[in-house]
Write a structure and sequence with these properties.
Elements: H1 24-33, H2 36-39, H3 59-85, H4 91-99, H5 101-111, H6 120-133, H7 135-138, H8 144-151, H9 155-164, H10 179-183, H11 212-221, E1 226-229, E2 232-234, H12 240-261, H13 267-281, H14 285-293, H15 298-323, H16 325-330, H17 337-344, H18 346-358, H19 363-388, H20 396-402, H21 416-428, H22 432-442
Antiparallel strand pairs: 1-2
Length: 451
């Protein structure tokens, strides 16, 4: 049975499973926690930039909360699979679904954003548009598939690279996670030239050409269904839906809580939106309103409702996962779990509409998106031209620019594509503050010695 074959302890870098008091999937979680790529998320914008004394979410706190929700989803899904298929599962599979699926989903949720650059989606846009806007000078230097990677830069694909790529001077296999965890973050398991709007698993892409063989190893090890060999396209792994649902649950709701803490939306409006969603899914609304009447602090009231909303959405996501499980196993489900619910629930649809208009369109958010775009674009413009030049043709200012790139991102013996990816690794890995500081220094806006 396929459920016996879609998980493995095999790791990137061909590291063999080890016997220890932690399972291989628990070790994935711990490796991510201690990785530098994960730590850098603490200073990468989630939605609201550098709010001063008011604490709101960054990419790291968002990822921790997504991981918490994901663990719950994985636990319920594991119980469901064991109950429904226990007579068909091997002993290893029974143990995995009972005790380790929740660890896999938690670990995958923890690292789902590690490939995202500074300044949110505007950072992604800046990297992609840099190559688009310089097409006449750069396109001829790359193959068609390499060029597609660059002009469609994608944080999801960059996550696979961040977690598996061997940087100069470092160990093979990157973070050396299990293929099971890596497959669980592959929302778009295809190469860039296969991107197709309107098809969920091909809306974006999941790996760069440089990591194509690594991704094929992952896909084959966990028995992902192949849709095409050229271009490479797979159907989603069954665990991806749980990771995606955890992410969707958190950002749909917690961005509202952050906006309330910042005074962008009022307590009354936030409370009304949350209560309407709870009413639509919770028959015991009287207990919720009674508890709410006992809390006078505005932030605490919204925090309580946020918790109830998240619980309702977890229950709904698991219900939809179970109902659609056969389609998921076959690779035939064409909508995300929260998208299915969104289409049938006016309350969640209203939260999405309100968020787009009043939160994501708020002036402070738009300002940081504009600033972030310019910072990231200018950093690439400082490093890409010298790195693609033949070393013998580099001027002194080219060499000075390249001296700023740490050695682990330098691939002087590689192709132009690999050298370019090295620069992108450096720039996309920067935190908001580091990118801003470096931009100010190389532009001469701030001059001084930094040790």
């Amino acid at each position: 049975m396929i459920l016996n074959q879609i998980f493995t302890s095999q790791r990137s870098g061909n590291h063999a499973p080890t016997r220890a008091h932690r399972t291989d999937f628990q070790r994935d979680f711990d490796r991510i926690i201690f990785s530098s790529a994960f730590r850098r998320l603490q200073n990468k914008t989630q939605v609201f930039p550098l709010p001063g004394s008011v604490f709101v979410h960054n990419r790291l706190t968002h990822s921790l909360e997504v991981s918490s929700v994901g663990r719950s989803l994985g636990s319920v899904a594991g119980e469901f699979i064991v109950d429904k298929y226990k007579n068909e599962l091997t002993d290893d599979a029974l143990d995995f679904y009972q005790h380790n699926l929740s660890n896999v989903i938690a670990a995958a949720c923890l690292c789902h954003d590690v490939g995202n650059p500074a300044f949110g989606h505007s950072g992604e846009d800046a990297i992609a548009s840099y190559f688009e806007r310089n097409e006449s000078d750069l396109k001829s230097l790359f193959s068609e598939k390499e060029w597609a990677d660059l002009i469609n830069f994608e944080g999801n694909a960059n996550a696979i690279r961040t977690l598996t790529h061997q940087q100069t001077g470092k160990d093979v296999g990157g973070t050396q996670l299990t293929y099971t965890t890596l497959a669980s973050i592959a929302k778009y398991p295809c190469e860039a030239v296969a991107r197709t709007k309107g098809i969920l698993h091909r809306k974006k892409f999941g790996f760069f050409q440089n990591e194509k063989e690594t991704f094929l190893d992952i896909a084959h090890a966990v028995k992902m269904t192949s849709e095409s060999e050229d271009p490479v396209i797979f159907r989603r792994h069954p665990f991806v839906w749980l990771v995606e649902a955890a992410d969707d649950i958190c950002y749909n709701i917690i961005d509202m809580e952050d906006a309330h803490r910042l005074g962008i939306i009022s307590t009354d409006v936030t409370q009304e939106l949350f209560l309407e969603l709870i009413k639509s899914e919770n028959r015991d609304i009287q207990k919720v309103t009674q508890k709410l009447s006992e809390i006078s602090n505005a932030n605490e009231r919204i925090s309580y409702l946020r918790a109830k909303v998240i619980n309702a959405l977890i229950n709904k996501a698991t219900e939809l996962y179970k109902f659609n499980f056969e389609k998921i196993l076959e690779g035939n489900l064409d909508k995300a779990l929260l998208e299915i619910f969104l289409n049938e629930n006016p309350s969640l649809k209203e939260i999405e509409r309100f968020s787009i208009e009043h939160i994501y369109g708020h002036r402070s958010v738009v300002e940081i998106e504009n600033a972030g775009y310019n910072v990231m674009y200018e950093l690439l413009d400082h490093f890409i031209p010298p790195v693609i030049k033949n070393p013998s043709e580099r001027k002194s200012y080219d060499k000075k620019a390249l001296q700023l790139i740490p050695q682990q991102f330098c691939y002087e013996n590689g192709s132009l594509y690999q050298k370019t990816l090295g620069v992108i690794d450096f720039v996309s890995g920067m935190t908001d503050n580091f990118a801003t500081d470096l931009y100010r220094k190389i532009k001469g806006i701030e001059i001084g010695m930094t040790v």
